[in-house]
UniProtKB/TrEMBL annotation:
PANTHER family: PROTEIN CBG26694, PROTEIN NYNRIN-LIKE. It comes from Labeo rohita (Indian major carp). GO terms for molecular function: endonuclease activity; hydrolase activity; RNA-directed DNA polymerase activity. This is Gypsy retrotransposon integrase-like protein 1. Residues 228-282 form the Integrase zinc-binding domain. The keyword Cytoplasm does not apply. It comes from the Eukaryota. Keywords: Endonuclease, Hydrolase, Nuclease, Nucleotidyltransferase, RNA-directed DNA polymerase, Transferase.
Length: 290
């Protein structure tokens, strides 16, 4: 893109991409119908504008040679175009894993290591195939394996027991597997009532209250720690702006958080956190340069 084109607003850049694409593949597209799928919904009405002017009119005149329709597809479903940026994280994938395999298999996984590590300095000849054999084990779905914040099981148990919204649920689950009646829950706060309504999805693991988070219709699920109030700001900081963050928007931050944690009104809290992030506000580019 030229320096001038870099100053275009998002909608202009999206339409410019369509113009460049159709110009490049003109010999293949003329005389046939095709579909333009985009994650930018504004292109749908922009193409149908009745009285365009200036640059927009010239672009639409170019596109008028072709027989096409614009279909909007949300960004989370735009995986073939954004495959690299939306590649799922293997460490959080709720896949079906088999018990330890009898036959040796060589597996690789991106790891972090120090440059002064002995194996790194010695080169690849120092690493034998036997040292790379990894047995695939059935994952132990525990609450503490889903946490990366450095909390111990005892710290989580203590924090949940001290949380006024979570503590009653833990106490009731220890007393009975049957859900309490509404008459017993009605005096409690809205958060406790929300947890109570999801009784079948909650369970205790190592004395930690965990929630099953299903992505699909299958039996696989993410174990979500029902996070106490005292840890929520720390988690949102790590997910949005920490070393594993990236200052993503609400949806991407929420989707990453939901594979590990859950609490009442998670979306509202994450949305407020992202909107009030000073770094995101400082780096946001204006639509046009002053």
């Amino acid at each position: 893109m030229t320096p001038t084109e870099q100053n275009y607003c998002t909608t202009q850049r999206e339409l410019l991409a369509v113009v460049e694409f159709t110009t490049h593949f003109r010999q293949y597209l003329l005389g046939r119908s095709f579909t333009v799928r985009t994650d930018h919904s504004s292109l749908q009405w922009l193409i149908r504008m009745r009285e365009p002017e200036g640059q927009l009119a010239r672009w639409l005149e170019k596109l008028g040679e072709y027989d096409f329709k614009v279909v909007h597809r949300p960004g989370r479903c735009h995986e073939n175009a954004d495959v690299l940026s939306r590649r799922p994280c293997r460490s959080t994938c709720p896949c079906n894993l088999n018990p330890i395999l009898s036959s040796p298999q060589l597996c690789h996984q991106a790891v972090q290591c120090d440059f002064d590590d002995e194996l790194v300095n010695n080169g690849p000849e120092a690493i034998s195939p036997e040292s790379c054999q990894v047995g695939v084990v059935q994952p132990a779905i525990t609450a503490c394996t889903s946490s990366f914040s450095g909390w111990t099981t005892d710290e989580l148990c203590t924090a949940q027991a001290a949380d006024p919204d979570i503590a009653p649920i833990k106490r009731w689950m220890k007393e009975s597997e049957e859900r309490l009646s509404w008459e017993d829950v009605s005096p409690c706060g809205p958060a406790t009532k929300a947890y109570w309504s999801q009784w079948q999805r909650l369970y205790l693991k190592d004395d930690i209250l965990v929630r099953r988070y299903y992505l699909n219709e299958g039996p696989e699920f993410y174990p979500q720690i029902v996070l106490p109030q005292v840890f929520r700001k720390s988690v949102m900081h790590q997910m949005h702006e920490g070393p594993v963050g990236g200052h993503f928007g609400v949806e991407r931050t929420l989707s990453r958080l939901q594979t590990r944690y859950y609490w009442y009104k998670t979306r509202e809290d994450v949305s407020l956190w992202c909107r009030t992030c000073t770094s995101c506000a400082a780096k946001a580019r204006p639509l046009k340069r002053p």
